[in-house]
């Protein structure tokens, strides 16, 4: 599964109407809403959109005939195997009616071309590992953490009896990391893991 590396734009004219797509990565519905507000154009006749963020998705035709704009945009996202992506397609009417089928092709095609041209990045499932350990063990854990690809310390808190370290890492390396921490601390560390 892939998402976009950043915001990408594509514009084309179809039968004298101008269609402009703006696509970008989003984490959730609220971020998608903000994306649409930031990239919508009040001067356009229609600002149609769709997003997918995991199992959550929405689409909007913004006054175009039902199912002729938002749904084809969502199908462009899904058809390219993308997730955590929002696409807004704005239309400026050029005087020629496209019909429902023409609108479906125009909105879906504009979105699909924009997404095809955009730089993609693979979505790597991550997990959060929380470790509570003695001060002396924390340094050894941090030194070994540098050898694990994709792992990073998200938070660290010093407490009276030791250190709490929160690490985010790819799911694929979490079991090995937990075994390593257990070995370093001789089983004394408290370890908690949560998907996310």
TrEMBL record:
Q: Which GO terms describe its molecular function?
A: guanyl ribonucleotide binding; ribonucleoside triphosphate phosphatase activity
Q: Name one GO cellular component term.
A: cytoplasm
Q: Which Gene3D superfamilies match?
A: 3.30.70.240, Impact, N-terminal domain
Lineage top rank: taxon: Bacteria
Stretches assigned to the UPF0029 domain: 131-187
Tell me the ranges covered by the Impact N-terminal domain, including all copies. Answer: 15-115
What Pfam families does the database record attribute to this sequence? DUF1949 (PF09186), Impact_N (PF01205)
> Mind telling me which InterPro entries this protein's record contains?
EFG_III/V (IPR035647), Impact (IPR023582), Impact_N (IPR001498), Impact_N_sf (IPR036956), Ribosomal_Su5_D2-typ_SF (IPR020568), UPF0029_Impact_C (IPR015269), UPF0029_Impact_CS (IPR020569)
Q: Which GO terms describe its biological process?
A: regulation of translational initiation
Question: What family does the Swiss-Prot or TrEMBL record give for this protein?
Answer: Belongs to the IMPACT family.
List the PANTHER family hit by this protein, alphabetically: IMPACT FAMILY MEMBER YIGZ, IMPACT-RELATED
Question: What protein name does the entry list?
Answer: Putative IMPACT (Imprinted ancient) family translation regulator
Specify the taxonomic lineage: Bacteria, Pseudomonadati, Pseudomonadota, Alphaproteobacteria, Hyphomicrobiales
